[in-house]
Every structure is written in C-alpha cells, then in structure tokens.
Amino acid sequence: MNILITGASGQLGRTIKSSIADQDDINFIFKSSSELDITDFEEVHAEFSQKNYAYCINCAAYTNVDKAESDTETAQMVNITGARNLALNCKEHQAILIHISTDFVFDGYLNEPYKEEDIARPIGFYGDTKYKGERAIINNIEEHFVIRTSWLYSEFGNNFMKTMIRLGTEREELSVVYDQVGAPTYAKDLANVILHIINKQSTDYGVYHYSNEGVASWYDFAKAIFDGHGIQINLKPILSSAYPTAAERPKFSVLDKSKVKATFGITIPHWKDSLTVALKAYSTITV
Q: In 3D, which of 261, 199, 194, 260 has the Cα closest to residue 57?
C-alpha cells in the first residue's frame, strides 16, 4: 500500500516519519514542498498518476498565523487551493485523504469545549484559510478525514516547546500570556492516531477533533516546559493585550474529543504526560 505524505519537512511530517518503524507493509512516500507543490494542480496530478496511492496525509500548511495577515495570497494558495488540489486528485485516483486542520477555525468565545458540529467563525486570516480548506475537501471528496488539532509541538521543526527552551537558556525573565486557553498536543500522539485510522482501514469519514487531554494557558504550558527541562527562569503571566500580535488568537480553543475516542476506541494521553515524553525525546536528539 502506497501512502503519500505532503509537507514532509514540517514537524508533523517528520514526526510521522519517525513513527513508522513497525509499518513494514506500507510504502510511505514523503514529499516536501520543494518536491511536491500542492498549489500546482498539474504537478499534483502527475504525482498521483505515477503511483497508486491508497491514502494521502496532508501535513502541508501555511501556519505562520501573524504573517498570514499580510501574506494572504500564499496562505490562500497553500491552505485552500492546495487542499482542493489534493481532494480532487484523491477523488480521481480513489485515494483517501487525511487532512490536518486547526482549532483556529473557532472564534474562542464558547465557554465549553468545541464539538465538530459547532459553527466555525475564524477571527484571523490563517483560521479563515484553514476553514475554507476544510470546505474544499468536504465539498469535493467523500472519503476524507479532517482532523482539527491544537497547539502542536514536538522535538522537530519550530514550535512553542523548542522556542521556550531556547528563550529559557538566553534570558533570566520571560512574560507569557495566561488568558488564552487550549490544549497542547504532542505531534507523536497525533501521528499515532493517523496511523491507527489507516491500520484500522476505517470508513468513518468526516471531521474529528484531536488534542491531548487537559487544558492549559500558554503560561501553564511554558511553566511545565521549564520545570520539565530544569530551566530556572522568572516567568511572569501577562494579558494578551500586553503582547499585541498581528493576528488575534482565540481566547478559548479547547476541543471536545468525544467523537474521535468513541469512533476509534482510543485513549488520549494528558498533555503533561506527553510533554514529559517530548522533552526526553528532545534531549536525546540534542545531546
């Protein structure tokens, strides 16, 4: 079975690559953006025509939340046009599409965890393009899994955990917002769920929410990172208004995972437990 992974140089693509040692019966083909431009329909069509793909895991995305406010064309091309190109080619070649989306499709004004059927109201351009990318998939191919996740981090790529570790070694004091609440998600856990869906050969297509269990503010997450990595720093909680950014973030983006747990029979680790695993993995590759 051939499986295409787009966005292979990103943290989720690299995490999947590190998670497939025991998948000997599957041929994973990893393509970075320089190797496969998903915004080019003909290039995507040529790739699907050359190989008989059973699945496409779309890890390719424009994820710079603040830069998306000004670099609107690129964000649209990758997150909307790219998603549509993959959906159309998966449909033509009878492949199943697994697409990664985000908690940023919600406005953050709900006071309880967001369910899959809750109305999406993005408050930033990044979230808007990701939601429109979801619709481009849902409207063009029935055989899809759209997985919304939140606060993704790992030992690979650029993410909050690695940024905090770097800043923690450079500074004596750091301020982090405490009025944005969500759930950190270890990319390894998300990768395992994706592989579980494939190995189960599930046909329960649709939209799913997946993050680690528990909730945290960015301040809570940062403190756990510093404590777990043994970094001594004066960490101060601040309001979002004290740290203005180009894009507004949802104040509350906790995702309800009831559907993914019931459908696939999985147990989701708590974010603190997964952070311990991630910090150990990070230490292993940086020593």
A: 194
Mean pLDDT, residues 171-176:
97
pLDDT tier, 87 (very low <50, low <70, confident <90, very high otherwise): very high
Cα-Cα-Cα-Cα dihedral sign, residues 218, 224, 225, 227: positive
Residue 46 tokens read as 């040529």
Q: What is the DSSP string of 226-287?
A: HHHHT---EEEEE-GGGS--SSPPPSB-PBP-HHHHHHHT--PPBHHHHHHHHHHHHHHHH-
Q: At what angle do helices 160-170 and 218-229 cross, to 10 degrees?
A: 60
Q: Which residues are catalytic?
A: 126
Give residue 23's pLDDT band: very low, low, confident or very high (50, 70, 90).
Answer: low
Q: What is the pLDDT of residue 285?
A: 85
CA 70 to chain centre: 22
